[in-house]
Design brief:
Blueprint (H helix, E strand, L loop, with lengths): L1 E6 L6 E3 L6 E3 L2 H7 L9 E6 L11 H13 L6 E5 L5 H11 E2 L5 E4 L12 H13 L12 E5 L2 E4 L4 E2 L8 E2 L7 E3 L3 E3 L14 E2 L7 E5 L6 H8 L6 E6 L9 H12 L3 E6 L15 H6 L2 E2 L5 H14 L4 H8 L13
Parallel strand pairs: 1-4, 1-5, 5-7, 7-8, 15-16, 16-17, 17-18
Antiparallel strand pairs: 2-3, 6-14, 8-9, 9-12, 10-11, 12-13
Helix pairs in contact: 2-3, 3-8, 5-6, 8-9
Length: about 350
């Protein structure tokens, strides 16, 4: 079994300088020395390190493309992939990669840690070793058990584009609020195969890594002013907006908000409604305060996460730069299991 571990950066790739106690990036050999168990099993592990390593706060769509391309270029040489990444933006990167790698038949497992690999109580070893085992796992027929982009953290394996970081303090840093875990690791790893997507036989991997960054996030809050909304909706070059609303997709019934959104949609800007709640789905029209959004031409994001919606919007705008009809249509349908469509 051949697994490629891709070190992009983040806390998991840091070690403490013994001279001054400061954290610094670990080179490949130093990292290997801290996790000798990784190279003592029957799973052959190679390591590839981004240079320089990237703090997850600095990750950009170009880095998402690089991650996806690294998997694509090494696809035929390995049975699975593990991507080490900082936790702060891991859900964004993992979501983006899930869209960029279409027709995936092998595991691509994102993981990281809350404490550096060289710290005594670090969660890095457990997360990394579990991620490698997930990436290498096959059934008796030789089929990969989790052939999709997933995120492994603190004993749980989630569909990557369903996750969000929920905690900056505890080891259990991620959650998938609207879709159950694909697997749980204890003494044994329990795979919930009915929740995992399995591709059709003889599927051919495609790399679709173009993105367009001309998107914005507009979060509704009590007292939001027309000037603020106008400033965002008239941003030069803007093509798409994620509108974070209350509850099941509700927003103030102010006439000015309706007119601002209607005018933006009329100019060709795509606006998608996403609830601010962690759990649940947008249901526009359920309450009167969301009817104006429907009338203005705002689309429903159903139960998608903000991280997945923003990256999906950037990805679709990059794939179909001159076809807004297709972008709108695909925003309403699941591309990589990132949302539950209406009536499903």
């Amino acid at each position: 079994m051949q697994i490629l571990v891709i070190l992009t950066g983040g806390t998991i790739t840091m070690v403490r300088n013994p001279e001054n106690g400061a954290l610094r990036p670990a080179d490949t050999e130093t990292f290997r020395a801290f996790v000798p168990e990784l190279f003592a099993s029957d799973i052959h592990v190679d390591m590839l390190t981004f240079s320089p390593l990237i703090d997850s706060s600095d990750v950009s769509p170009d880095d998402w493309s690089r991650m996806a391309r690294t998997v694509y270029e090494n696809y035929n040489r390995y049975d699975g992939f593990v991507i080490l990444h900082g936790t702060d933006t891991m859900s964004y990167s993992a979501s983006a990669v899930s869209f960029m790698l279409q027709n995936l038949t092998k595991p691509v497992v994102f993981t990281g840690s809350q404490l550096p690999v060289g710290v005594l109580r670090s969660d890095a070893k457990e997360n990394l070793l579990t991620a490698v085992e997930i990436a290498a796992a096959k059934d008796t027929d030789g089929q990969c058990l989790v052939p999709e982009v997933c995120l492994c953290f603190e004993g749980k394996v989630f569909r990557a584009n369903r996750t969000t970081k929920k905690n900056a303090e505890h080891f259990e840093a991620f959650e998938s609020y609207n879709y159950p875990a694909l697997a749980k690791a204890g003494v044994h790893i329990n795979y919930r195969r009915h929740l995992i997507h399995y591709p059709a036989p003889d599927t051919q991997l495609q790399l679709l890594d173009k993105t367009d960054r001309h998107v914005a996030l507009l979060k509704i809050f009590p007292g939001i002013t027309e000037e603020v909304v106008h400033a965002i909706l008239t941003t030069p070059g803007l093509k798409g907006v994620v509108l974070e609303t209350y509850g099941s997709g509700n927003a103030p019934s102010s006439e000015w908000l309706y007119l601002q959104l209607k005018e933006a949609v009329g100019r060709g800007i795509i606006v998608v409604n996403k609830t601010q709640c962690s759990t649940g789905s947008v249901e526009m029209g359920r309450y009167e305060v969301s009817i104006n959004l429907l009338k203005a031409g705002v689309l429903s994001g159903y139960d998608i996460t903000t991280e997945a919606l923003l990256t999906k919007m950037m990805w679709l705008l990059g794939q179909y730069p001159a076809d807004m009809h297709t972008v709108k249509d695909m925003l309403q349908h699941s591309v990589a299991g990132e949302m539950t469509e209406a009536g499903v």
